[in-house]
C-alpha cells in the first residue's frame, strides 16, 4: 500500500508518556452497571466472549435483560461461558445465543459466522440489533514473535484484529443500520494504547501492512505488529461512520474505538509466571475493561457527533497519538479502510 501524500503532524513524547501512565492509573469509572439502562427487547453482538473482558461484557448486558449473540472461536468454551452466566443470573429475562467456530485466522469461517448471525436476527422473535462490540482479538502476548500467518497468508494479528472484524461487520451492517430502534445504536471497535508503539507516520507499516510478502523472521516485533492492528481499529471506527454517515445520523448510530485498559485478563496465561505475579500489582481486574467498552456501547452522553472518538479507561474520551488523530479527518482513515476492502473483497456478501 502506497503511503498517501498527506503530511502528518509531529508527535509528542510527553503526551505518549502521559497516556501510557494514565493506562496504569486511570480515573475511577463513572458509568457502571447501576447506570446501565434496561435492555429488554434489545440485541447485542459481542465477539470473543467466552473469557476475559468479553465474558464480563456478555454477563453485564445479559443482567440488563439483553439478548446477546456471542461470537467465539471455540463452541464448547462459548457454551460453557453461557451456562456459567445463566446459572449466576437466574433473574434475567434476557437471552444468550452462541455462534462458535468463528476463527478470524480463516476468513471463510468469518463468512459462516456472519451468515449464522443473519439467521438468528431474521427470526421473528428477535428484536432490533442495537449494539455491536468487536472485542475479539489476538495479542502480542499470545503471539510474541508473530510466529504464524493466517490461512489467507496475512500476519496473524493483522487478520484477526483488522480484516476479520471489518469483514464480519459487512454481514452485520444490514441489521445494525436498520431504522428500527433509534433509542440505541452503537458500534465499538476495541483498540489499545499499544497504538502509541507504532511507526510514524500514522502508525502503519505502509510497504506491507499485512506482511503477506514478508517472511516471519523479517517482520517487526509482536508488540509493534499488535500496535499497528490496534491503530487500524481506531481508524475503522471513524471510517465506518464516514462510509455510512447519512444512515448513521438518521438512526443515531455511534461508532467509537475503545482502549479497555491494562487488565489481568485470561490473556496473561501466556506470560512467564513470575511476571504475572508482578504485573498484577499494576493492572486492573477484567471487569473494569468491560466498563470501558460498555461506556461506548451504552452511555447516553455519546451522540453521532462523537463517532470516531477514542475511549480510554474506564469510560472517558482522550485523543489518540497526534498523527493518528489527524488521520481520522484528513483522509487516512478512509484510505486504510478502502485498502482493507480490497483485501477482503472476495469474501464480501
From TrEMBL:
The region annotated as signal peptide is none
Q: Which InterPro entries match?
A: NAD(P)-bd_dom_sf, SDR_fam
Xref: SUPFAM superfamilies: NAD(P)-binding Rossmann-fold domains
Q: Which UniProt keywords apply?
A: NADP, Oxidoreductase
Q: Name one GO molecular function term.
A: oxidoreductase activity
Note whether Oxidoreductase occurs among the keywords: yes
**The UniProt record lists the keyword Oxidoreductase:** yes
- Give the similarity note: Belongs to the short-chain dehydrogenases/reductases (SDR) family.
- What protein am I looking at? NAD(P)-binding protein
